[in-house]
Fold this protein.
Amino acid sequence: MNIKVKDIAAKSGVSIATVSRYLNKSGYVKQETRELIKNAIQEIKEQDKTYVREKNIAVVFPDLSNMFFTDVLKGLTEEAEKLNYNVFSFDSGESIEKEMKIIDALNDFNICGLIITTTIKNRETTKQHIQKLNSLGVPVILLDRDLIFCDFDGVFIDNQKGAFDGVDTLITSGHKEIAVITGPLEYETAQHRLEGYKQAHKINGLEINEEYIYEGDFHVDSGYKFTKEIIKNNKDVTAIFICNNMMTLGAINALNEMNIKIGQDISLLGFDDLEFFTYLGLNISVVSRPTSEMGKMAFEVLSKKLIDEEPCATQNIVLKPSIVIRGSEKLKGNNKK
């Protein structure tokens, strides 16, 4: 049996929104109201002696074929298993419709918490979607992508700082004509990385050429397509900053097809690392996010929510990325180190 928020609300005579705040330990709930909700939950449990809240955690990510998410999941799972939690992962395929269906289905799972990278764009969401998340009656932890109009805890990355540092590295290496392949600019993560690209130009006194900005979709094909367009249409470009690992793979494929040598004929710097870059001898310099740490931190925030009986302040953790230098950022003929 998985106790439904609406059942607790009906039993206690309290609104669904207030019950959700109490269950998620977010926001203020009067002591008198908390007692009503506690008593209602106890009554419902007593009515069904088979009720057990299992140590099951649901994880919903938008693309489990992307090694960023699989690495985060690995770190999260390793931490959860230390405390005997089970982790069930779901792939929403970057589809809000599929994400909504998964959340609906989770009502039939006996989960104690949810960690999610939502597909909602621009931090804007409908009241219906937040109500769906709250209706699960368990703590919800956001990962990588934030939402507004809600009190969910989260673990995030400073995307703008990471992109700034990456592009600044290219400029320090001697590049002045730098193209960028962004993610879909509906996403705040993509917007922040583009802002970092622009900020690095401004601080270094370089003009921003709008013709050098290409909007990708975080998938391999767009990295492939726009790299070919950059090479064809922008003869002055000496470096490309690519805003995620999957598009970097596409860029590598395109350059190989064109017999263009990375680090010699063109320079690359990507956002997010992939282990097989080094396994295959691809010395790609990257902005690296601490994926395993993100997963571990997300579980730690969730487990604290599950252990603490009293509501606690919303916790948003922002981790810093780092630059991994492997040589692909160098400008041909530049001896600068």
